[in-house]
């Protein structure tokens, strides 16, 4: 077998454009996230994860509707333009009147990620940092599964501030709403 000088190129990853990713994603049976030309398949969730997403998602959806906003669970992507990324958060809310793409939220005010062993590192580091680059975003909520613990990151005039909630109510300033941790962790 003969190798050519081009052999190192065989290891180079294929770069996919955002447009090609979006077109393929509409036809795919498996959800994928997109980060600067690379595509990553999403893993399935546990029942515990699904219960928490449903509980917080229904509460956020009701709060969003009261304010004339929209909220979506699991299957709607968020565009992070500065990071050239598309993610599927567990819950996303938008209040922007022109944010009407049928598959992608471009101007979220609130994003929720329910943490799991397989996703926690990416959710805490990559996603949270990239989400913070979205100009419209006011809050990021990270929900633990193994314990009653919710971290809220809120945009402040001078940066982002973090708060941890382990009991009582979770205040979502972006939607002017309270969610009981008992309700969030029910089931």
Automatic annotation (TrEMBL):
CDD domains hit by this protein: DUF820-like
Describe the location of the Putative restriction endonuclease domain by residue ranges: 19-172
Which Pfam family is one of those matched by this entry?
Uma2
Q: Which UniProt keywords apply?
A: Endonuclease, Hydrolase, Nuclease
Superkingdom, natural source: Bacteria
- Identify a single GO molecular function assigned to this protein: endonuclease activity
Q: Which PANTHER family match?
A: GLR1098 PROTEIN, RESTRICTION ENDONUCLEASE DOMAIN-CONTAINING PROTEIN-RELATED
Report what the protein is called: Uma2 family endonuclease
Q: To which species is this protein native? A: Azospirillum himalayense
